[in-house]
Amino acid sequence: MAPFNLKKAIKYPLSCDQPFERLPELAYNLWWAWHPEAQNLFHDLDSEHWQHHRNPVKLLRERQKNLPSLGRQPAFVAWYQEMLQRLDNDLDTSKHWFARTYPQQRDALVAYFSPEFGLHECLPIYSGGLGVLAGDHVKTASDLGLPLVGVGLLYKNGYFTQRLDTQGRQHAVYPHLNFEELPVLPVLDKKGNRMTIAIELAERTVQAQIWLVLAGSVKLVLLDTDLASNTPKDRQLTGQLYGGDREMRLAQEIIMGIGGVRALRALEIAPKVWHLNEGHVAFLCFERMREWVEQKKMYFAQACEAVAMNTVFTTHTPVPAGNETFALPLMQKYFHGFCSALKINLPSLLELGLQTEAGGWKYFSMTVMALRLSRASNGVSLLHGQVSREMWQHLWPGVPQNEIPITAITNGVHADTWTSPPMAEIYDQYLGRNWRSRLAHPSFWSKVEKIPNEILWQARFEAKTKLIAFVRAHLAGRYRRQSASAVRIKTAENLLDPNVLTIGFARRFATYKRADLIFRDLARLEKIINHSQRPVQIIFAGKAHPRDVKGQKILQRVFRMTQRKNLFGKVILIEDYDLNAGRLLVQGVDLWLNNPRRPLEASGTSGQKVPMNGGLNLSILDGWWEEGYNGKNGWKFGKQMNYENEAQQDAEDAADLYRVLETRVIPLYYARDRNGLPQRWLQKAKASMASLIPQFNTNTMVEAYIENLYLPGALRGENFKQRAFEDAEVFKRLLRAHWPLFHFIAVEKQRSSKRQTEIIARIYLGELAADWVEVEYVQDRRPPRALRLHKSHGDGVFEYRAKLGDALAGQARLRLIPNAALFVQPHEAGLIIWS
Questions:
Q1: Can you give the residue range of the structural domain that contains 86?
Q2: Count of structural domains within the chain
Q3: Is 551 helix (H, G, I), strand (E, B) or coil?
Q4: What is the pLDDT of residues 804-829, one digit of tens each?
């Protein structure tokens, strides 16, 4: 049978006459989402339609009648042809960074599973930071030429549209997306029918249709259960992002994980690495285990090893309560039948994710399962990696916290998506047109000093003016919807001033993000806002989850603050925060405010977008800012510590926020030279750009994933297939059988010279070979020092020795662990004995 040809399975539902017959290719490939010059084509086709919908597929369906006149304009036709040539160049990855850097790994395909993807506002299958990060990851994979396929769900109702009433109460309105009007393509099978796959859910089978989203050279494989062959209830399973009850959530994650693997198999896509972007997608491991058991005749423990070898897991959540969990009765309902395929009983499967609360209640944790079924795990900032190692240390009993196998790769942002066109032009002129390929080079970004301050300030002013125009139109629209008076609607036209220091705060309204912290001392804030010579204005945006009552109350409080007499028109809350509003905010504000309750911000990426546009950050030292702040590139407030008392933390953080604003930020902004330029502010902005852009962009981030996680994972997977790791599970089984007998018989210290001490350990290993284990000398804050096998005393007793300098021979302990050479992670067997 001929192999499945995915390219032939793509049929564009739209067609255009010459010379624009390839225009649907541009419309259906979200490559245009991070190439503003390509968006100009659609803007010129119908500017009003584009401004309202920002959706080229819908535009072509409804305004294609304008094309003939544009076909008679040589400049437009030439621009269209240039965009096609640039798209073709980007789709040919043979000359991209990845192919040049790793020519032998060009087939190391990564399957990137994520519950949401934030590529563009016209495709609302994202809710916040996780989805925006996934979208930036995908775009960067295309830019670098990394072979990657995304996998997720195509939500019929997307994420909710936020509407605020006159009291500031949030109302969630779920749109009904018409996929025919979106840049998504149905996949057709060899007979020309829409391709579907089947997923077993409890006692029933659900069909899911396969859709494709094109993002440059990357394809997203998305599943949708809204099919006539499914029951009305099952048609709703892919309705809402993070919607429904716990059972619907479980069903969604089964479809995403198990169904996602089956969709890739149906498309004959064979990944070398499997990346779990958060625990929601971790059921893909179950399906891959089933494949190993059924197709390779492995038993369950071997299949676990096979899956873990090339699985990468990224955790984004710094608190246990934020990690996805399911009750055991619900897991039993949905997986008792699945166990027969794995030839195991239910407890063996559930043990992979079993967690126990202090009170004894047990449940299944998706994060625990993901950690146990991956050989590479990471947090999303250095601090979050540390927090994660502490949070999950109990999964590796006896292992020191700093050795828990959870590393960190700090999040970044996609430069072309978030940099305003005027700023991109400045980089082209003063840094060179190759600046996009030099994003990860710190020395290159010192060139921002060449940008004249007056040029940078003018670009900043233009971006702020554009933001204010957007906010005014947005508020006027809200007032009209609320049937406000003509006078009230008229006031929206004059709100905010582009000459005033403008602060932005936009993010999910979760309680730990403390959106209302700045309102703690209203008298002091009103004095800051209304200063006669140095006024300040603040723009807020963000959604609270429909079931997050506390978050909605914070949102409502912020709204009420905007209605106060002394704050009205100077403190603004815009509704329905999306990617378009986010772009305008990070491009236009002078200062980005971030005040999470440390250490609960895993990374945060909103503030990383501001330096690319010449803005500055004021933040708690949490997430990315703890490693980004250097004293010269922005401001910090609050203490670099974790509090036990939240009320005390809030009070101290708020007081310090006011202090930094009053004494450092505001005076610097309003200190002008004879030409009206804030020279020292702009120098600080350049210091921010030079130090933060090369560190916190997705080129830097994805290159770190490739080097540290993806390529090692691909190699492990290939080695396993070639049977180099076939004994991993056997080693563990033998070690666990013998381990209860192992013990230290004696540990001695002997002075071997004036400056050296010899450590001698005699250990009983029974019948196991001595090279199966290692003995290490462990001292606080120092790397472990191995003792060498000296001799055998017979009867299973072995002697290990090491000579140490006096500086190393202080208080310490010896430990016995499996030989690290036998495994990928030194502690993956979970076996350790301390002297």
A1: 23-91
A2: 4
A3: helix
A4: 876 665 677 899 999 888 888 889 88
